[in-house]
C-alpha cells in the first residue's frame, strides 16, 4: 500500500481529515455560545430560573465542544510545519501575523472569560455574569475571523508582494487582508452556519430527550422551551446562510470561475444571448466524465441559473470548464509547467453544493413545522413521536452540510494551495516520508475517532442526566470558596 500512495496524497488526506473533524466542533462551539448567551440573557431579563438552568445545562455541551475544538485545532496548526513546511515558508510573513493575533487576542480572551463564566455563577450579579459568556462567544467569532482571513488569502491573495530572491510572499498591506472581498462573504457565511449547527443540535437533542420522558414529566417544559429558542436561532442562521451564500456564489464568477462552473455543472459556456429563452438553465442533476471532463447526463430547469447567477429572470453568461481550462493553460502554463490540468473535481463540487443548499432548505421547512407543532397551547409535538425522531435525526444534518461547504471551498481551489500563486505540489514538506505519513494518518484517525466517541458519550450522558441532575461544579461541598457565597468570611 505504501508504494501505491504518494506523499502528496497522504499529506492532503491528513490535512483534509483534520480540517473536517476540527470543523465539526468549531461551528458547534461558536453557535452553542450564542444559544447559551441568549438563554442567560433571558434569565437576566425575565428573572425566570428555568432560563438559568437552560444556560447551565446546554453550557455543559458547549464546554465539551470547546475543549475538543481546541485540541483538534492545535493538531491542525502543527501540520503546517510537519507536512506543509514549504507552504509555511512561502506565506509565513502573512499567516504569522493573522495566526498570532488569533492566538494572543481572540483565543486568550475567550479562554479567560469561559473560565470566569464556569466558576462564578454565584459570585457576580446575573447582569455581570452574562457578560462573560457573551465575551467568550464574541471572542470565538473573532478567532474565526482571523483564521478565515488567512484562508481568504489562499482563495483570493491580496495585500502582498513576491520576494523573488527568497521565493516567498511578503505582507505589504494588513488592511488589504482585512478588506479582502473573499473574507467578507466567507466570514458571514460561516458565522450564520454556526447558528444553524447549534440551533438544530439543541433542538435535536431536546427531541431525543422528549422521546424518553413520560407524560407529565417536569422536564418537558424545559426541553420544549429549548426547542423554541434553538429553532428561532436556527431559522435566523438559515436566512443569513441563504443571503450570504447567494452573495458568495455570485462573487465566485469573477474570483474563481472554475469552481463556479463546476458547482453548476457547466462544461460548455452558456451564453443567454445565444438562447431562444435568453436565459441560463440550471442543472438539478449532472454527471461529468472525470477523464474527458464533459457532462454526459443532466436534468435542467429553465431560467434558474440566470436567477441565481445574474439575479434576473433572463441574461447572464457562465463560462464552461472546457473554455476555462484553455484560458488557465495560457495564463499559468509557462510559469507552472508541472500543472497538467486546472480542472477541479466536478462531480464532488456539484453534489456538495446541492447537499449544502438543499439541506438548508430542508432544515428551514423542518424548523417552521416544528415551531408550529410546539406552540404554547399545542401538545402536537409530544404526540407525534415520528416527528420527534425526525428532529433527532436532523441533529446530524448541519455537520453534513458544513462538511459539504468546506469541500466546495477547498477542492474548488485545486490545483492551487494559494490561488494563482502556489501549486499544491510545491507546498508539501520535502523531508517527510510516505511511511511516516501513513503511520501518522492511522494515529490521527484513531485519535479523532476516540475523541469523537468520547464527546458523543459525554454529551449523551449529560442529556440522560437532565437539567435537574445535581451540579457538583457550582458550590459543591468540595468547593473551597462555597462559604463566601453563603456570607462567610475568608
From TrEMBL:
Family: Belongs to the cytochrome ubiquinol oxidase subunit 1 family.
Keywords: Cell membrane, Electron transport, Heme, Iron, Membrane, Metal-binding, Transmembrane, Transmembrane helix, Transport
A molecular function GO annotation: electron transfer activity
Biological source species: Leuconostoc lactis
Annotated protein name in UniProt: Cytochrome ubiquinol oxidase subunit I
Keyword Iron among UniProt keywords: yes
Subcellular localization(s) per the UniProt record: Cell membrane
Entries under Pfam families matching the protein: Cyt_bd_oxida_I
Membrane-crossing residue ranges in chain numbering: 20-45, 57-75, 95-119, 131-149, 187-208, 229-245, 351-374, 386-408, 438-459
Topology of the protein relative to the lipid bilayer: Multi-pass membrane protein
Cellular component terms (Gene Ontology): cytochrome complex; plasma membrane
Domain of life according to the entry: Bacteria
Example GO biological process: aerobic electron transport chain
Region Disordered, residue ranges: 469-490
